Amino acid sequence: MSSVHLLVPVKPLRLAKTRLRSASSAADDHAELVAAVALDTVRAARRASGVAEVVCVTSDASLTRALASDGVRTVEDVPASGLNAALRHGDEQLRREGVARTGALQADLPALDPDELAAALAAAGGDRAFCPDRQGTGTTLLLAEAGLPLDPRFGADSAAAHADSGAKQLDGAWSTLRCDVDTAEDLALATRLGLGPRTRGQLGIP
Known about the structure:
Elements: E1 4-9, H1 27-46, E2 51-57, H2 61-69, E3 73-75, H3 83-96, E4 102-105, H4 114-124, E5 129-132, E6 139-143, H5 158-164, E7 168-169, H6 175-178, H7 184-193, H8 197-203
Parallel strand pairs: 1-2, 1-4, 2-3, 5-7
Antiparallel strand pairs: 4-6, 5-6
Helix pairs in contact: 1-8
C-alpha cells in the first residue's frame, strides 16, 4: 500500500463553520476557533502512519501563515468555488508533481487520534475508499486509488455519493475520525473524546 498525500481544505476562516458560531463570543474568536480546529486536525494527521504529507488547500492568509510556521505546505484555493473544486485543484497540483495517491481529510476533526486515521488507511488498502461521519451521511476521509483522480463528491449525503462512485466504505468505530465538528453540540462531543492542544487553548480548557 502506497502512502497517501492528504488534502485538507479550509474556507476563509470568517466564512467557515457558520453553525459553530454559538461556541464563540465574537467574530474574531470564531475565526480563531476554526483555525485552531484545522491546525489540530492537520497536526494529528501528520503523525499518522501511512500519511506521506498533509497539504492544506486554502486562501486564508492568516491560516496559511500559521500552517507555514508548523512546516505545512498550502495550495491556494484558486477556484474559490467550494469544497469539491478546491479538492480537485489540490489533487491536480499534487498529481502534476508525481504524487501517486491522494486523499481528502475534512478540516474539522479537532479530537483526531493519529492511530485511528492510520487504522482507516490500513483498512482501505490500495482501494478507493471513504470513512463516513458519525451520523453516517457525511464523509470525513476520502481516498483515491493510486494513479487515479480523487473525484470528490462532498455535499449533502456525500457518503452515499462516494459509495455510488465505487468507493468502499470503511466501517471501523474510529470515534475521533468520525467526529467532525459543525455545531456546538459536536464540539462538546469532541471535547469529551479529547481535543487537540490548540482547540483546548482557544476554549480555555487546561
